[in-house]
Amino acid sequence: MNLTGKKLGLLVSTAPETPSFHHALGLAKAALHDRLDVYFYCIDEGVKGVEDDRLQVLKSGGLKLFACAYGARKFGVDLSDAAIFSGLAALDDLVCSTDRFLWFN
Question: Is CATH 3.40.1260.10 what the domain over 7-104 is classified as, yes or no?
Fold first, then answer.
């Protein structure tokens, strides 16, 4: 089955050291390998992982990385070019425009 061009959205609300964050990374890596467009949105404690090397490698490989600006402020994460910092309107757009959307909590 050719999945090229299909869109996968992933929402991660857990810290980068958790199994859920690790599983989301693995799914993102596999989806990128299968040529899907992957949108990865970090919210709540997930914002602590935007500069994680594993996530940044995926970003350099085509992952579209977003993070909650409010959560970044709450958890002391600097706004940088590591991700596109946005609000819930961007998250709503991702949910509505992807073929599949999964949440890792």
Answer: yes
